[in-house]
Amino acid sequence: MRFSLLIGVFLVLINSLLAQTQDELVIKEIFDNVLESQVAYENLRILCDKAPGRLLGTEEAAWAVDFMKAYFEELGADTVFLQAFSTPAWIHHSSRVSMMAEGEEIELSADALGPSPSTPTNGLKAHVIEVQGLEELKELGEDAVMGKLVFFNRAVDLKHVNTFRVYTSAIDQRYHGPRVAAELGAVGALIRSVGTRVDDYPHTGSTGFKEKRIPCAALSTIAANQLSEALKKNQSIEVSMFIDSEDLEKITTYNLIADLKGYEKPDEYLVVGGHIDAWFNSPGAHDDGVGCVQSADVMRIFKELQLKNKRSIRIIMFMDEELFQSGGNAYADYCEANGIVNYCALEADAGGFTPEGFSIDAPDSIFQILQSYHELLEPYNIRYIKKGGSGVDIYPLKKLGVPLMGYRTDSQRYMDVHHSAYDTFDKIHIRELQLGSGNMAALIYLIDEHGF
Amino acid sequence: MRFSLLIGVFLVLINSLLAQTQDELVIKEIFDNVLESQVAYENLRILCDKAPGRLLGTEEAAWAVDFMKAYFEELGADTVFLQAFSTPAWIHHSSRVSMMAEGEEIELSADALGPSPSTPTNGLKAHVIEVQGLEELKELGEDAVMGKLVFFNRAVDLKHVNTFRVYTSAIDQRYHGPRVAAELGAVGALIRSVGTRVDDYPHTGSTGFKEKRIPCAALSTIAANQLSEALKKNQSIEVSMFIDSEDLEKITTYNLIADLKGYEKPDEYLVVGGHIDAWFNSPGAHDDGVGCVQSADVMRIFKELQLKNKRSIRIIMFMDEELFQSGGNAYADYCEANGIVNYCALEADAGGFTPEGFSIDAPDSIFQILQSYHELLEPYNIRYIKKGGSGVDIYPLKKLGVPLMGYRTDSQRYMDVHHSAYDTFDKIHIRELQLGSGNMAALIYLIDEHGF
């Protein structure tokens, strides 16, 4: 009896060691493959080149979906389909801001925020109130604001190490500023771009209107400095603003879904995705073309290495993360309506820089299993697997009880490019991208292999 | 008695908590300063712009030393001096390689290795043997090699995650190839550049001759591919090589040393440094202009924040890391001869990318103290403090028993730029650089504060 117990313990031990070794071998194979593959990188080059500004409802967005669809078909996905849904859309045609200073009209580098309404056809012209934030504006009150253009010019706080925190330090101006200005009677709003550089690239983004909307735009940090300097010299200068945009009440658009069928539990989906849309002013290389091609690369890796997956791997190119988050919501609704089981969901939407970790939004028991994989992924630059948010597109799956995961990267360069024309393909480093695909594939492999 | 013991324990505890909090506060202050400072970044811009190719013995090297000397004086260092020493030097004037293929002379992008001898004034022209490494060459033997130009064309192994390992996978060809080829009677040697990209930038570097030297150069990876393709079509094509270089038997040159005097133990030096020289073909932004300006920034931070240092902080701009390592050796000799006590030494020579950690070459007891600082530095992107090498310039201090430390950064982009014209200032990211200065200053602060 005691001998057989010993044997039992021994076998369990051997088994666990073998599993560990097997995992290490597979993960090594994944990285050997990915570090020599140019596929994801070259797909991204095409995406940025052929479909910049692929915002919801644009031809570029449709082109991007078609391109990735053809890629999944060529790759030999078992199923590739467009999940259609209806949503309002907002189309940007053009933005222009200038100031009259010392008798000269000076162009200020600017891009409309989404969904800014159009100005009158001839633009609008108004005096400007510069404020350093929402509180200051509220204190000024209606009398001071009525009929004016409000200029939110508080700079980001660069002292945070993580640039998402730098971003958060000033994002209230972009998200809430135009709404509050509108409520106080302003005719328009300008915000200082929320980014880490002083340069001439405006960083756009979404703004949260309620009932009343006013034309609004982001100025580049250089333009914001120019305007602020001009106002110091002469408070009564006027700024002209022209925005041509279009509200579409309802369009039909798509999430692109590609499945690699599982051999044991084909009806359970391991979701991996990024968002295919990008702001009108941007090639969307880091945000989020890279997340799309890395997600697609997870399928390529499983196919090329013939890693047999028990559950189905589902790669999703989500539409419309940027404006109304309609794609993520539509996918969750579709799953709920059709009883589709998502075993877990992983989103890559933090740029294609050197891997940093995974952040997990899941019950403790699952979190602990995921965290136990840290050691296996550490040699591939994963610093942490910790609790935290996942991604905007997969977040609606939370209410269906799906464990959520976000791929995180080194943030230092992200807010240089975010939502701007500076987010170009040449900012992508092939090895940094490849390490991302590899870690995402490795994590999906481990989850599929060992389950929760 | 028991009560006083309790009080004692309580006081020790409070003390240790206060020390921890105090450290955290100082480190926060350091990063608050450095993340808003442009000084190191702007110094580096000037260094790369005004003194590219600042190899030992050049005017550019002298200019760089003068520039940093003036900076330390302006900063208010207590002592700034040039530590003179004599060394042989090697000066590169020009390199040119071309092949005759299909009746055409095709230029191949190339830079001489150091210290390659000159070719005859009219260059040399020879048939080429392509090999994939030293073993293959040795097997071919003298009969096959005599009178030929040996072309080492094994590519790096991209499958390593750390690019220093990618580098190591092919560096034997550059370091030993020309010597072995010379010993077998070759008239010259070409090596495939040791880097992570396929591009047209040659990556030079030092090669280890013994008695016999032959002209040798690195081809860009594109040029290496061109030559290899041409040889596949026609084994008997000839390659022309022209190198104009100069051996100087003995020159006088300098390490630049700037001290910030300690208030308690001024004769114990906390050494922080990088190397001021850079290859003739390169602006030397990441290698190692950035290490120089980050080291200098440690002094700026101590001065600006008025962090009182017990021991003297000694910033060294080492001359000649690249060719003969004469500066590092000269400093160690100078310390030995003059009984100078270096309490520890930290080198930054791994590029100015996002911080990764510190690697420590010191006795266990000291290593453990250093490792205990990991937690304090982790919020600032330090992933590890682990055992390992330090830096080429401070290594000679090891025999004097000095604890050595190397600052490490994310390696993904380093071997793209290393020893090439691609190592330009625009490859430097200000925040990544700033986090390096901050972590170096924080580590020096902790060592000075708590001692070993």
Please tell me about this protein's structure:
2 copies of one chain form a homodimer. With 452 residues, chain A is α/β, with parallel strands linked by helices. Chain A folds into 2 domains: 28-78 and 261-450, Zn peptidases (Aminopeptidase); 94-245, 3-Layer(bba) Sandwich (Glucose Oxidase, domain 1). Helix content of chain A is 39%, strand content 26%. Chain A is built from 13 helices and 14 strands. Chain A has helices spanning 2-34, 39-50, 59-75, 134-145, 163-168, 171-183, 221-233, 285-304, 326-338, 364-371, 374-377, 414-417, 430-450; strands at residues 79-101, 104-108, 110-112, 124-131, 149-152, 188-192, 216-219, 238-260, 265-275, 311-318, 341-348, 355-361, 384-387, 404-409. In chain A, strands 1, 2, 3, 4, 5, 6, 7, 8, 9, 10, 11, 12, 13 and 14 form a 14-stranded mixed sheet that branches. In chain A, helix 1 (2-34) runs antiparallel to helix 13. Chain A binds chain B through residues 31-32, 35-36, 158-161, 163, 196, 354, 379-381, 383, 410, 412-413, 429, 431-432, 435, and chain B through 31-32, 35-36, 158-161, 163, 196, 354, 379-381, 383, 410, 412-413, 429, 431-432, 435.
Topology:
2 copies of one chain form a homodimer.
Chain A lengths: L1 H33 L4 H12 L8 H17 L3 E23 L2 E5 L1 E3 L11 E8 L2 H12 L3 E4 L10 H6 L2 H13 L4 E5 L23 E4 L1 H13 L4 E23 L4 E11 L9 H20 L6 E8 L7 H13 L2 E8 L6 E7 L2 H8 L2 H4 L6 E4 L16 E6 L4 H4 L12 H21 L2
Parallel strand pairs in A: 4-5, 5-6, 6-7, 9-10, 9-11, 11-14, 12-13
Antiparallel strand pairs in A: 1-2, 1-8, 3-7, 4-8, 8-10, 12-14
